User: What shape does this take?
Amino acid sequence: MEEKKQESLLNSIQYPDDLRKVPLEQLPQVCQELRHTIIKELADNPGHLGSSLGVVELTVALHYVLDTPEDRIVWDVGHQAYAHKILTGRREKFCTNRKLHGLRPFPSPDESEYDTCTCGHASNSISIALGMAVAAHMEGQKRHVVAVIGDGSMSGGLAFEGINNVSESENDLLVVLNDNNMSIDHSVGGLKEYLHQLHTSKTYNDLRYKAAKQLLKWKILNQERSKILLRFNNSVKSLLNRQQNMFEGMNIRYFGPIDGHNVVQLVQTLRQIIEMRGPKMLHINTVKGKGYLPAELNPLLFHAPGRFCPETGKLIDPSSDGEMPPLYQDVFGETLLELARVNKRIVGVTPAMPSGCGLCIMQAEMPDRCFDVGIAEGHAVTFSAGMAIDGMLPFCNIYSSFAQRAYDNVIHDVAISHLSMVLCLDRAGLVGEDGPTHHGAFDLAALRPIPGLTISSPMDEHELRNLMYTAQLENKGPFVIRYPRGKGEHMDWRNEMEEVPVGKGRLIKNGKDVAVLTLGPLGNTAAQAIAEVEQESGLSIAHYDMRFLRPIDEEILAHVGRQFTRVITLEDGVRNGGLGSAVVEYMADHGYTPRIVRMGLPDHFVEHGTIAELQQLCGIDAQSIKRTILSVMA
Assistant: This one.
């Protein structure tokens, strides 16, 4: 009964139209009930907790003031959009969030008309929202468009490109800058410091609002005069504040910072500024994890904490039933530290993911040799290139799907100059519940055509350590190592590292009926399937771990082409362009004609679910491999 009473207001709200019927003074209770719902659901069904708790008041205020979905809200990244989902017709289904065939992990137009665009990567909100605002202006539509972007995402180059263009286009865009000093890890860089120092006078802004409204009413102020007045106004304010506001320097009207957890004030402020002509920025200060003390005290841990006890905040350890192999990211971090202790040229670089990728392990001991460059993947690669030019050996660690945004940098700034640096692609392949925006599906196919790259993928933690050791030896050129999210295969992962011959695979098991060629950790799944098929059918199956996609082991391919009439390739990436395509090309170029079956991710975007569910869905699990082996022998 008590819980029902606590959620009495939220139970009456299915869509924003219902929210707008709630009296303004009751909105704090709506916010409290939203937080209770989010915490209760995520305790059992893990997701992005801290980010969503931090923008509850902003979400309520935006839907309260705007006429959504006719008006547009563009969320940056979208991992803070749980309150948005609950208020837009998805409260009853929220328990299916991130589950196979359930609600999507991030906003998606395919799921709801209230989700204006796909958003899973950072820094794109301003550009998308500006396009919407310009389109509305060109069509003469009175539609409000709001971009919500965090201070962490503002470090991305695309955000700056968008904000620069905002000042040059005819638009009425409102950018809400959610400043919580966090992305996943703490925000870094000069912009973070700038935002903390930025301030404006409430009295000044109140006076300006009234003056501007009166001038418009008297028809003294038109669009062109408004621009001139705005430039003069910004100059006066800079003089009075003794600082230049970066945004107003680009003719974007700036308001704030204000308390992002005062929902009544947010509503009142939004009502004051939403009708103003021209681009505007509202700067709000929020606390990541607001309203849940464990998340406020440890926002990094509670960004996406997994299952936890909502009453105590204690995490429910999935390994509590017994010891589990370490995560690949931890093996990377520990190995990098080992190598860096010996090789003084090694430095670590990551775009805003030191804890996620394991660089924090080296950072704790060698902070002066680790660089978190903020959410700026292209810069991370080119910054690493600059250090490599002058003799350092960067290990640049980027999540595979995020590295897509650094493609030109890899080609232009690294590969052409054949620089010695190591590009570590974490979260390669299927990543599970984060879905299509985060699957590392395209790295193999995208990078394979680039001349001079070494592209590798370890089958297990021992091979990861060996490849990292190999990559840091002299004159290896640009060296890519891609590995998956999650746990590995071994408890005893601290092997004595040894050099791997570049471009050489290895024979895992000999056989004569079928050759199975694998790349990466899926080789372990293949080994299991091969053992079961041989036991059940009496077939003799050869298994090769290719280890390298580029340069590919042509000795193995020539041997397979001569000895086998049936070949299966298996990879945790898109079938088109990766290992399977490389094998087909080699066989065709050299006159070999085996029947080749390529197994990998399909030619469509893969949805969200557990990795086991998605592997089965994509036909790359052990049972699918067994069926494929038997089918090629039929």
